[in-house]
Design a protein that fits this description.
The structure is a single chain. It is elongated, with a radius of gyration of 15 Å. The protein is an all-beta fold. Strands 1, 2, 3, 4, 5 and 6 form a 6-stranded antiparallel beta sheet that branches. The protein has one domain (about 5-90). β4 (about 40-55) and β5 form a beta hairpin. The chain contains no helices and 6 strands.
Amino acid sequence: MKKIKIKNTYNLNLVGKPIQDIDSLDEVGYPDYFEYDYRESKVVSSWWNFRMSRKSDGKKVTVFVHFSDTFDNDGKITDRISYWNKSLLD
């Protein structure tokens, strides 16, 4: 598991109102790399735990997030899809 240290506190903003402080972003397992014949697609899938503190009451919340990043032939990200459950922030 790769753990990313955050030097500053970041806010998760929904409609311009910060509702969460991000405590840590923790990678879960190892990312997977896929190459597809269709359009010579190159995709990296990764899984993360976003650990946050709710601003309203300080409750600790962990949101599991999946990213699928598509890369071009130069290795630059051209598209990102994320999957997560917003209801965990309520």
